[in-house]
Amino acid sequence: MRRVLAAVVALLVLVLGYGALDVYDVVPGILTRDAAHSPTAGSPPATPTGSGATGTTTTGSAPRGGATASPTTVPTVDSAAQPLQPASAGAPIPDPAALAAALRSEASDPALGPVPGYLVRDAFTGQVLLQRSPDVARTPASTLKLLTALAVGTTLDPHATLPTKVVQGASADAIVLVAGGDTMLAKGKGNVSAVEGRAGLGDLAAQVATALQASGTSTVTLRLDTSYARGARWAPTWLQADVRAGYTGGVSMLGLAGQRAIPFRPAPRDPEAATASAFVAALRTQGITAKLAPERTWTTPVAAGATVLGTVESAPIGDVLALALDDSDNALTEGLARQAAVKAGGRPTFAAAVAFVKKTVSAKGVDLSGAVIKDTSGLSSGQKVSPRMLSDVLQLGADGSVPAMQDTIARLPVAGLTGTLAHRFTTTTTHPAAGIARAKTGTLTGTSTMAGTVIDADGRVLSYVVQADRVPAGVGTLAARAALDRFVAALATCGCR
Q: How far, CA to CA in Å, does 237 sit from each of 327, 351, 364, 379?
C-alpha cells in the first residue's frame, strides 16, 4: 500500500507540479496542505492507553500486516489550494523570539503535563530556535528507536537482504531450514513489491522439491537451524503483560508475515515452530512429505559446505528498518539491533545490543551522558534520554552528514498519511502539518513523545523533539497526542520572522 501511495504522489508531482523539494531529502515532499485524508469509516481507534495499575504500555503501534490493516484512502489534492513553499536551505531561518511567541500556547498546553521538554532546530544549520529543559533526561518511549536506527543503519548494509535457506542434512532424506533473520516470510509465494512477505515459503518449497525430486526423494525429515543470532526471546525489563497484550512480540530470527504483534493480537510465543509447520505444509503442496525433527535439534548449526537446496531473500535491510520505525514494531527493531550487534562482534543478547547502540551512537558524536537505556526499542520502563540527545541524532540525518540517518528521516511516518501518524493531524488546527511533517512517535503510560522534521510556512526545514513524560493521569494518551500534533502544526504554519 505504501508503494501505491508513493506512486500516486509521484503522479501528482508530474501532473500538478506541486513541489516541496528538499535538497537534503529529509521532508515528505510533494503534497498540498489539503493532501492528508480524514480517518476512513471503520478505521481503528487510536492506540489505547495502557492501564497504570498493571503497568501496561503502548508504543504508538499502527495496524500492520495483511488482513488486519485498515483501508488506506488515497490522498486528494484541492486544486484551489496554494502549493507549499519549496523546502530550501535558502529560505529564511525563523526568528527565535518570534517562534517562541507563536508557540507560547502550544508549548504550555496542560495536556503535555507541567514540565515537557522540547528542542526545535534549524535542520540545515543546527541552530537552536526554541528549547525548554533540553538536557533533562526524560522517558523517550519509542523515540529511542531513532538511536537504534542510527546504529543499525551505519552497521548493517541497507541494501543487503536476509536469507532463509534449506540445505541438505546428514543423509539424503534429511533437510535443514536455516534461519537468517527474516521474520516476515509469506506462507505461500513471496511478493516482490512488499516488505512484509517479500520472501515466500511457497517459493522456497518449490526450489527444494525440485532438488529433492531430481534425486528421487519424496519423504524427508526436516529440522531447523536457529543458531544465527540466537538469544533470549524477551528482554528481562519487559512486562509479560505487554507481551500478552500484543505490544511486542519476542525477538527471533525466523517468523511469518502477518504474525507480528499488534495491540490485542499477540504474536506466536514460538514463531520458529509456526514457521516450521508452515514450511511442512508448503512442501506438501509440492509433493514432498516432511516430518519435523525434535526441537532440541534445532540449535545445531548446519555443517560447513552443506549443499544448498533453495534460498529466498527478504526485502533490503533498509526497507525492513523503515517498516520497523513506521509501525513502531518493538520486536522487529530489537531483532535488527541484535543482528547489528553480532556483526559488530557482540553477543546476541539484549544487553549486548544496548551496549552496541550506545557505543555506535556515541562514536557519531552524540553525548549520551546521563542516558539510561535498557533496551533498543523504548518499551522498558525507567529509560531516560534527553531532548538534546534525540535532536543530535536527528541532526546527523537532517544536515546530511550521515547518509544512513538521512534515509531514516526521509522514511519516517508522514503526518496524516502513514504509519503511526496515519490517523493523526486530521483536525482543523493540526491539518496544516498533514503531509509535510515526519516523526517517530513514542507512547507509554503517562508519556507521549515525538521527534522529526517539518517545513515551516517559508519553506525552512525544522527538526523538533517534544517529550512529555508527566502527562496528568486524568488527561490520557489521546489528549497528549493531540497537544503534540498542535505543537508541530504551529511550527508548520509559522514563518516567524
A: 21, 11, 27, 9
